[in-house]
Amino acid sequence: MRLREIRKSRGISQLKMAMDLNTNQNTISRYETGERQPGIDELIKIADYFNVSVDYLLERTNNPTIQK
Amino acid sequence: MRLREIRKSRGISQLKMAMDLNTNQNTISRYETGERQPGIDELIKIADYFNVSVDYLLERTNNPTIQK
DNA sequence: TAAAAATATCCCGATTTGGTATAAAGGAGG
DNA sequence: CCTCCTTTATACCAAATCGGGATATTTTTA
Question: Taking CB atoms and an 8 Å cut-off, how many pairs form between chains A and B?
């Protein structure tokens, strides 16, 4: 997941992101370290939160925007 | 997931798909009925198997091809 | 360099997952 | 209409994975 890169580029802390997504800071941390993987629903929430495609979030494309 | 639609359009049975992906037919069935959700790794395998983007597989775009 | 902010890790209960086995549904031929 | 074969769905279960609270560690800032 390209999560840390995206989050930092927006200048958002794990805590703020976690609160916005109704989850915990430690959960975000684990996604970023790769210790845990979000479920699909959470994955989508994250992509939407940052307005990027899931493919981009998963490092499958270079295009950061959501595909229409 | 747009899984059933994609799989049928390729004329592949759940069983064949399952064997190609080293899993079980019932697992595919449950993905299609929505009873279970694949993990991210499996999700990516499925997208690659059908050569579609994850976003398309998740019904987030109309473009079936992988985004470069 | 002390305090605050940010991030990582520990432990845990609970949910979710995938597998095996089996049942049900669908189709082709007789 | 049956029977066989293929395809798809469901039941049950052990194991893996997840998220949360608490806490430790690291990083930043004043």
Answer: 58
Name the token pair of B15: 């069983």
What CATH class does A3-57 carry?
mainly alpha
At residue A62, the pLDDT reads: 81
The amino acid at A14: Q
Pick out residues 4-63 of chain A having their CB under 7 A from any atom of nucleic acid strand C.
Answer: 8, 13-15, 25-26, 29-30, 32-33, 35, 39
Chain A environment of B62 (Cβ under 8 Å): 68
Q: Are A58 and A1 in contact (CB under 8 A)?
A: yes
* End-to-end Cα separation, chain B, in angstroms: 21
Q: Among positive and negative, which fits the CA dihedral B18, B22, B26, B31?
A: negative
Domain ranges for chain A, please list them: 3-57
**Per-residue model confidence as pLDDT tens digits over A3-53:** 999 999 999 999 999 999 999 999 999 999 999 999 999 999 999 999 999
Q: Could you check: is the Cβ of residue B32 within 7 Å of any atom of nucleic acid strand D? A: yes
Which nucleotide is nearest to A38 if distance is taken from CA to C1'? D18
